[in-house]
Amino acid sequence: MKFHLSPLPSPAEQLSGDEALLDHCESGRGEETLLFWQPRTTFVVVGYANAVSTEVNQAACAAAGVPVFRRCSGGGTVLQGVGCLNYALVLQIREDGPLRSITSANRFIMERNRAAIETLFPGSPPSASRITVRGHTDLCLGDLKFSGNSQRRKKNFLLFHGSILLDFPLARVSELLPMPSLQPEYRARRRHDEFLINLHRPAAQVQDALRAAWNADEPLQGFPEFEARQLAAEKYSTYAWNLKL
Fold first, then answer.
1. CB–CB of 228/30 below 8 Å?
2. Is 150 in contact with 74 (CB distance < 8 Å)?
3. What is the C-alpha separation between 86 and 159, in angstroms, rounded?
């Protein structure tokens, strides 16, 4: 598998890079890739079907100058910023493989990611380091969430991507996001500051663990940067896309 560190600087371009890579592979021009990017500013990202008016404290975001963007996959709303690491897996779907359905893909990918992150806690007692998969696509340290994930599927390839809290100021989440309208049962209606946790591991260390888990040992040549920038300008930077619901 290939790997790539995205050079795209803006939130719209960083988000569009995930979709552009999926389209690139679906068109037959690309191959399975593990992509990484890190936010340089603070911004909100809502899931494809999220209503901004419900899932975002718009007044607080406006007062703080925090923009709102929408991603191409489902899932809930997240706050992005320095101290987060984002990854995107673009994988080929095979009829007889573990990615053949949404459910089986979730199980397969989340378990591999869970095992990868577990390697970052060598020698720790299980009770102190147990990395768990909760609510189908959340990675947790015990029952505290540090990573949310979602997928988008096409005929031949899927995009599975997520964000990982490394050293993010968690208090900002409660300032800018209300309690989500849909919550996994294990959350038990806990507030953001009671539910989230930072992994407290360097980004490079987490990237290395995921690269090893996915055998992503070859740099990608030909990342669709032009297509990503075009998609950012025509879609991810627009009011019609970001605030459509």
1. no
2. yes
3. 13
pLDDT recorded at residue 122: 84
**Predicted pLDDT at 14:** 97
- Asked whether 31 and 156 are in contact (CB, 8 A), the reply is no
CATH class given for the domain over 2-95+150-242: alpha beta
Distance CA(6)–CA(8), nearest Å, equals: 6
- Segments making up each domain of the chain, as ranges: 2-95+150-242
Q: What angle do CA 76, 80, 82 make, to 5 degrees?
A: 160
**Cα(first)–Cα(last) distance of the chain, in Å?**
37
Residue 15 confidence (pLDDT): 97
Write the single-letter amino acid at 103. T
Lookup: tokens for 178? 């209300």
Q: How many CB atoms lie within 10 A of CB 67?
A: 16
Contact yes or no for 225/7 (Cβ under 8 A): yes
- In eight-state DSSP terms, residue 186 is G
Give average pLDDT by consecutive 10-residue segment, the chain, 245 residues. Answer: 94 97 96 97 96 96 97 96 98 95 97 96 71 94 96 97 97 96 94 96 97 97 96 96 85
> Considering only CA atoms, which of 226, 225, 208 is closest in space to residue 34?
208
Q: Residue 196 carries which DSSP code?
A: B
